[in-house]
Input
Amino acid sequence: MAGDDKPGAGAAGDDSTLMLQAGSPGAGENSPAHPVKRWETRSGAILLGSLVGLGVAFVIAVLLVLLVPKDEEAEAGGDDDGDTDTPADATPVPVDFTGEWFTNFADMELVQDGQAVSGEYARYLSDNSPRTVKGSVKDRTLEGTFDGDVNPIRFEMANDGESFFGHWADPQGGLHEWCGSRDTPLPDGCGYSGEWRVKNFPPAAALEGDSILMAQYGDTVQMRFDSSRHGEVEFELEFDGTTLALARGTGNLGAGVVIEFQFLVTEDPDWNALKGTWRSGAQSGEWCAAQGDAKLPC
Output
């Protein structure tokens, strides 16, 4: 055994000396104090005891692994890497449209009683008088009307219950995006939030690449982009009070460069395209942007 080679091994060292003496003349095999037999007997007992101890320890370890409930293992922190796994088919939270909502063109407050929903919304306009919303919920979908009984709406609640996407329909049957969230900014793809591919952006901006980021906070929009000349640029635009969803703002890029922007969503039913104008000093022009697979409208 490895421990026999260590200094101060005690009795094991003495037994080794006895074994060497046993090989000398006069150590008869039938001697009552035959050193070799005594050492072999003792070593065998030690070896047998060690094997039994290891066997018992192994069996106990196996039983512990097999008997630990899976629930306790999950409570202890999940996988060995410390992550807590969330099932891909996690059960969605129950649908309840009750609460205050920030949407792409209005603030809205709803109350759900059973399957029935009612409430009001106020557009981001100077004339923001409340208008009615009502409908009923089936599965995760709210279907109903707004501003009377003839203008239809359809909202689909997200699985986490924190946002919805949908449309309202005009008298001609045209669809227009109506989406929202319980908190701001609006999620990407709702209103002006998300990444936008741009065309004819003002040269003074020295845009890196061909896209900008925007985040909508109720009736304000934050625009952000990287400039090869001015670094990271970020500024805020506000909705105009006279034209629904028309945003205006001024970006001060530094070094005397100031750019005035304005833009308005097009008739795209999902708010995936916009047109606008810019002005910087004596220069001005038109620009446009699009999200996803939508075509640039300029």
